[in-house]
What we know:
- The chain has twelve helices and ten strands.
- By secondary structure, the protein is an alpha/beta fold.
- Helix 5 packs parallel to helix 7 (153-162).
- Strand 5 (108-113), helix 5 (121-130) and strand 6 form a beta-alpha-beta unit.
- 34% of the residues lie in helices and 12% in strands.
- 48% of the residues are buried.
- Zinc ion binds at residues 5, 7, 234, 263.
- Residues 5, 7, 234, 263 line the site of zinc ion (ZN).
Amino acid sequence: MIDVHVHLAALPTKANGCLLSKDMLGGALAKLVAWHQGLPLDEPERANAIFVDRVIEKMKASTRVEKGVLLALDGIYGDDGRLDEARTHMLISNDAMFDACARSGGRLLPGASINPARRDALDELERCAARGAVLIKVLPNAQVFDPAAKRFTAFYRALARHKIPLLSHIGVEYSVKARDQAVGNPERLERALKEGATVIAAHACSSGHVISQPHVETMVRLVREQPRFFMDASALTLPNRVGIARHLRRHPETFERLLFGSDYPLPVLWPGSNPFDRHAAALEALGVRCGADAKSVLRL
Ligand SMILES: [Zn+2]
């Protein structure tokens, strides 16, 4: 299997183009990941190398997952289309991601991140496409843009032309500080679909709330109407995402559009076993089947 949702974590160094706010670095998530993985936060280069080595190691040891799409994370851009460093809590640069993939022996596939609101979005897309990006990941809630905005039409058409899917976060976001949770609605992705892009809605359209799953109707409709609409199963084993499983089971046609994804290294408190295998087994136990073919969706 291919895991379409593997996060790269990286501390900023002089050369890697990454950013991490003091809030994030001092926050519970960073501490938990660092503690769990034994990363030396005061030695960024070494911590970054350990993180990547460990992903590769765990993937090699997995009996289920052969390759993973490693995701960068773009930042927040101002009205002038320039990076707003002061408001960006976390930025994992495309170059750091490409470097990590380059030393993975083909196990990690490049998942670039481009905020379509940046003024060089189309140029960056050309650059990432030329370097072999298999998808573009966005997190509208934290990157502060509305995927439905008309001004992104050219960006979506370019994705369609390159046949590079857009992987977008769905639901509320807790890991990276979010500014606008409303943009995590899958309805906002219809513009990209309309312009011909392939779309992968993360977390199987779950809301991120423990009780309510308001996106089920939209999910079922998009599966019915849009042959280029897919989802991933990342983070579905978290308590605030697992509620979507019974809706997927009730609409088995959605399984044909579901790609395997873990959201590694989240959840951070994986029990001792292999995190990729553990996620695959948990999905099976939930009766959730990832029936979409990642190789054809990612055009590998
Ligand atoms: Zn994720």
